[in-house]
Amino acid sequence: FYSATPLRNLKEATTITLVELAKCLRGKGHNVVIVAWKPEGMPDFEQIQGVPVYRGSFPIFSNILSYPFTLKRVEKGLGIKFEIIHSFSASPLFCLSNLLSSIFLGGFSPKPIRIHTLKSYSRRMSRIFFPILNLVDCITVPTNVFSSRLLLVNKKKIKILHSPVNTTKFAPRDKDLLKKKYGYSGKKVILYYGSMHEYKGVDVLIKALPKIYSNVPSLHVIFAPRYKEVTKERNLVRDVGA
Q1: pTM for the complete prediction?
Q2: In 3-state terms, what secondary structure has residue 124?
Q3: Prior bond to 112 cis, omega within 30?
Q4: pLDDT, tens digit, 9 for 90 and up, residues 63-92
Q5: How far is Cα 82 from Cα 153, in angstroms, rounded to an integer?
Q6: Which terminus of the chain has a smaller tally of CB atoms within 10 A, N or C?
Q7: How far is 235 from 233, CA to CA, in rounded Å?
Q8: How many other CB atoms are there within 10 angstroms of residue 50's CB atom?
Q9: Angle, CA of 6, 8 and 11, to the nearest 5°
Q10: DSSP secondary structure string, 168-213?
Q11: Integer CA distances (angstroms), 194 to 87, 174, 191, 226, 230, in order
């Protein structure tokens, strides 16, 4: 596997997905490694929950060229031959790195098999790059809606793989007990956890709150931002009293 992110945050969705999938495949006897981009200050190699993670960079066009060279270094160092290259990103443009890696490792033969996962919607306007996805062997997305948005992409290559949930760590809890514990007994509660960036639609929720409050006076809205940066959305939260 390789990812467009450096995998520095162990609570970030991409890190969790890659590590859990790698652990599952390794448990079935497959030799799986993760290759990630290497920003300054990050180690070239580490193990995350027993999964080997290699990082690499390249002076020019680092985001695309670092992966083929790092994969080749790992192949040579471990004395192995990669049979499948599975890349993860939000932007479809990043699958070019997968294609370059497969050529760099195996020439123009159909091996290794090339899989690209679009883990989320890209923040940038990237629809014009959708046709590039046709060059890989398989594309996976988490939802049917996501699949329907991939215009000019061969539908036979698209597979729906819903995001996994580790039920040993995440299990439903009694809502009434939780409300009592945190002082919200008898009240309606809306909890939002995640990024506060505008493209997530949080601003729409915030602007709707006054109207919601007028119909449900006992409502409490709790925002649990993924990061601590101050944004205009957080200022809006204070304005409406959430």
Answers
A1: 0.73
A2: coil
A3: yes
A4: 667 788 888 889 889 998 889 999 988 888
A5: 26
A6: C
A7: 5
A8: 9
A9: 120
A10: TT-----HHHHHHHHT-TT--EEEEEE---GGGTHHHHHHHHHHHH
A11: 24, 22, 10, 5, 14
